[in-house]
């Protein structure tokens, strides 16, 4: 095998590698242009000064559902259907008091955003806040839980898998930036309506028959307890979404796409 032949092969491989790298760069640049053009088309049709700005943005939010399953990697926006939360914690009471508990949810996945609809939208530019109401025909969540409680000296510790499905569900979300571009985002979520619910919690009671009984009681009587647990649901969801929104939208250049 001649040295000249090896040299020619090497040159050919370098040439092919260059073509591949150039094609990859071109594809990435094209993808970036396509995403920027699409976002500019969607967001750019809304003008701050117009009377119908809020309605325009409501429609834009719904048009952006195409990105819920993919996210926008060019701007570090992760997918929202499903979206994931690795950790969220809720505490009530004092460990030295009469009663207290701690609930930790891990590796939570949420599904249903691609079928949701924004029904109301309001922007408050002076307060750097937007408020929108979102309807989900069906929304499901699943993950792992750890629950520790103490009541009158008696301790209870449980952990396992859980899943929750909500039907005919709506929530109102308030998103506020605390400071200038790149500053922290604060999210507050309020449950507006739950038409139906199915909840299954593994190892809540000792033994499979008792667990099935607990599932039956929870799923048949949840409406009675909703006024008491609703504030805790709002807190858990708000904490999770504050982390999610900061991770995906804290540095998103919204002004680049909005029309003045």
UniProtKB/TrEMBL annotation:
<feature type="signal peptide">
    <location>
        <begin position="1"/>
        <end position="29"/>
    </location>
</feature>
<comment type="similarity">
    <text>Belongs to the TO family.</text>
</comment>
<dbReference type="Pfam" id="PF06585">
    <property type="entry name" value="JHBP"/>
</dbReference>
<dbReference type="InterPro" id="IPR038606">
    <property type="entry name" value="To_sf"/>
</dbReference>
<keyword id="KW-0090">Biological rhythms</keyword>
<dbReference type="InterPro" id="IPR010562">
    <property type="entry name" value="Haemolymph_juvenile_hormone-bd"/>
</dbReference>
<protein>
    <submittedName>
        <fullName>Circadian clock-controlled protein</fullName>
    </submittedName>
</protein>
<dbReference type="GO" id="GO:0007623">
    <property type="term" value="P:circadian rhythm"/>
</dbReference>
<dbReference type="GO" id="GO:0005615">
    <property type="term" value="C:extracellular space"/>
</dbReference>
<keyword id="KW-0732">Signal</keyword>
């Amino acid at each position: 095998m001649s040295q000249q032949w090896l040299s020619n092969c090497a040159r050919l491989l370098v040439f092919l590698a260059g073509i591949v790298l150039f094609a990859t760069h071109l594809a990435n640049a094209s993808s970036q242009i396509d995403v920027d053009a699409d976002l500019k088309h969607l967001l750019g049709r809304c003008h701050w000064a117009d009377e119908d700005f809020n309605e325009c943005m409501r429609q834009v939010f719904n048009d952006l559902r195409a990105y819920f399953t993919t996210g926008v990697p060019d701007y570090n926006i992760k997918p929202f259907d499903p979206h994931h939360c690795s950790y969220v914690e809720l505490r009530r009471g004092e460990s030295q008091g009469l009663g207290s508990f701690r609930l930790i949810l891990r590796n939570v996945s949420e599904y249903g955003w691609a079928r949701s609809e924004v029904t109301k939208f309001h922007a408050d530019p002076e307060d750097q806040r937007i408020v929108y109401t979102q309807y989900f025909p069906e929304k499901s969540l699943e993950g792992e839980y750890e629950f520790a409680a103490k009541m009158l000296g008696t301790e209870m510790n449980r952990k396992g898998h859980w899943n929750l499905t909500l039907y005919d569900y709506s929530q109102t979300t308030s998103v506020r930036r605390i400071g200038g571009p790149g500053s922290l985002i604060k999210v507050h979520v309020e449950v507006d309506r739950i038409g139906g619910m199915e909840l299954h919690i593994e190892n809540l009671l000792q033994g499979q028959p008792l667990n099935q009984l607990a599932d039956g009681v929870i799923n048949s009587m949840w409406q009675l307890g909703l006024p008491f647990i609703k504030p805790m649901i709002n807190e858990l969801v708000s904490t999770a979404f504050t982390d999610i929104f900061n991770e995906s939208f804290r540095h998103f250049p919204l002004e680049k796409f909005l029309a003045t």
